[in-house]
Design goal:
With 127 residues, the protein is mainly α. It has 8 helices and no strands. The chain has one domain (7-123): Globin-like (Orthogonal Bundle). Helix 7 packs antiparallel against helix 8. Bound molecules: protoporphyrin IX containing FE (HEM). Residues 37, 40-42, 47-48, 51-52, 55, 70, 75, 78-79, 82, 84, 88-89, 92, 117, 120-121, 124 line the site of protoporphyrin IX containing FE.
């Protein structure tokens, strides 16, 4: 872990990122409120899971795994194939908020990440 002050270090490095992504996917698969969101994902989420871990590792200031393995992450491009409205954003955020609550004890840090995720999700709205 190169920078001990990075968000990546604070979340607990690779293990922390994996924990967050797995909790997010569990919420996506099970929360009754996110049926519409669930429908736009493929049934097999294994590729999604590894790409989320790689992407978030980079995004949180850890190793640039996504770039190393797949080139520049172009999130607007990868999200272009399905329309994202404010309901989809809110369902996505419900899953992420649930995952953050389950995996991050430090309330200030959790709130900070929630804000950062919200801004990212909001920027992906296409309609
Ligand atoms: C705003 C609501 C969002 C919706 C509805 C959404 C939906 C999706 C869907 C359906 C996929 C494709 C899964 C697959 O085919 O395997 C995907 C991929 C992905 N999403 Fe999102 N997403 C949202 C927000 C976000 C946010 C906020 C982030 C990052 C913080 C993110 C990161 C990713 C990544 C890294 C991938 C994989 C890209 C790749 O295949 O290279 N998404 N998303």
């Amino acid at each position: 872990m190169s920078n001990p002050n990075s968000l990546y270090a604070r979340i607990g490095g690779e293990e922390g990122v994996i924990r967050l992504v797995q909790a997010y996917i569990q919420a996506l698969k099970t929360l009754p409120e996110v049926q519409n969101l669930r429908n736009i994902y493929p049934k097999d989420l294994s590729k999604y899971e590894s790409r989320m871990v790689e992407y978030l590792s980079t995004w949180l200031g850890g190793p640039a795994l996504y770039q190393a393995r797949h080139g520049l992450p172009m999130l607007r491009e990868t999200h272009r194939h399905f329309p994202i409205d404010s309901e989809a954003r809110d369902e996505w955020m419900l899953c992420m908020r649930t995952a953050l609550e389950q995996t991050i004890d430090d309330a200030d840090f959790r709130l900070y990440l929630e804000g950062a995720f919200w801004r990212m999700a909001d920027s992906l709205i296409t309609k």
